[in-house]
């Protein structure tokens, strides 16, 4: 019985991916010729470049997660044309569970990394326990005139720092009841105690157990 719940969840790991909502992504990575599997920016060039103003000390990032869980990292390259990603804005490993939207209200940029008017590219990477990774990029300009999005919210997604004792940022438990079952939830509600640490391993174990039941 449990396996009927878990197997569709696994299937979605390979098919659903994610949207970068804010800053506006470089282009639709679901379009023909693009693929989120392709490093570094889903095979989307800057030909039809759009740039979003972003505050000098960091700004909002809004991601629509389609998978039931994922690790993610957000990296930055300073420069205009396909800059190399030389710094990460997520030095700690993050794990999200649930599909919905994740709002990071202010992703900090280390002081001195960027100055007014600098162009840069943000690279969002999501990855699973095998290391399989998906990419999206957004081109930005650092500006004191940047305006935060008004519609950035976390809905149905829980974000934890792997290894941290308590779930902290961007927690939304209100919507877990209408979310699809995640591998950890279907093991019997022990999701909270698993937290973010090794959720991939937990998921794999849960599948193994379910198939043996
Ligand atoms: Cu996918």
Mind explaining what this structure looks like?
By secondary structure, the chain is of the alpha+beta class. It has a single domain (2-212), classed as Distorted Sandwich (Coagulation Factor XIII, Chain A, domain 1). Helices cover 14% and strands 30% of the residues. Copper (II) ion is lined by residues 14-17, 67.
According to CATH, the fold-level topology is Coagulation Factor XIII, Chain A, domain 1
- Average pLDDT, rounded to a whole number, is 80
Q: Give the CATH architecture.
A: Distorted Sandwich
Q: Helicity level, as a percent range?
A: 10-25%
Total domain count:
1
Oligomer: single chain
Q: What is bound: which ligands?
A: copper (II) ion
Structural class based on helices, strands and sheet pairing: alpha+beta
Distinct helical segment count? 3
> Shape from CA axes?
globular
Give the total of beta strands: 10
Relevant terms:
Coagulation Factor XIII, Chain A, domain 1, seven-stranded mixed sheet, 213 residues, 3 helices, alpha+beta, disordered N terminus, binds copper (II) ion, globular
List the helices and strands and how they pair.
Elements: H1 2-13, E1 18-22, E2 52-54, E3 58-65, E4 69-78, E5 87-88, E6 94-97, E7 100-108, E8 119-127, E9 133-142, E10 158-161, H2 191-194, H3 199-212
Parallel strand pairs: 2-9
Antiparallel strand pairs: 1-3, 3-7, 4-5, 4-6, 4-8, 6-10, 8-9
Bound molecules: copper (II) ion.
Residues 14-17, 67 line the site of copper (II) ion.
């Amino acid at each position: 019985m449990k396996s009927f719940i878990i197997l569709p969840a696994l299937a979605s790991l390979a098919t659903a991916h994610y949207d970068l909502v804010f800053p506006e992504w470089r282009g639709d990575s679901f379009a023909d010729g693009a693929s989120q599997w392709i490093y570094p920016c889903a095979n989307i060039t800057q030909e039809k470049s759009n740039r979003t103003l972003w505050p000098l000390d960091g700004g909002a990032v809004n991601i629509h997660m389609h998978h039931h869980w994922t690790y993610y990292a957000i990296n930055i390259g300073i420069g205009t044309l396909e800059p190399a990603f030389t710094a990460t804005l997520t030095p700690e490993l993050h794990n999200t569970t649930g599909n919905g939207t994740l709002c990071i209200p202010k992703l900090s940029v280390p002081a001195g990394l960027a100055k007014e008017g600098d162009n840069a590219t943000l690279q969002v990477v999501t990855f699973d326990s095998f290391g399989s990774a998906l990419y999206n990029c957004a081109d930005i300009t650092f500006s004191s005139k940047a305006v935060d999005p008004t519609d950035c919210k976390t809905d149905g997604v829980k974000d934890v720092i792997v290894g941290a004792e308590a779930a902290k940022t961007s927690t939304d438990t209100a919507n877990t009841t209408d979310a699809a079952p995640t591998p950890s939830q279907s093991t019997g509600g022990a999701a909270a105690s698993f937290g973010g640490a090794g959720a991939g391993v937990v998921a794999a174990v849960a599948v193994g157990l379910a198939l043996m039941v």
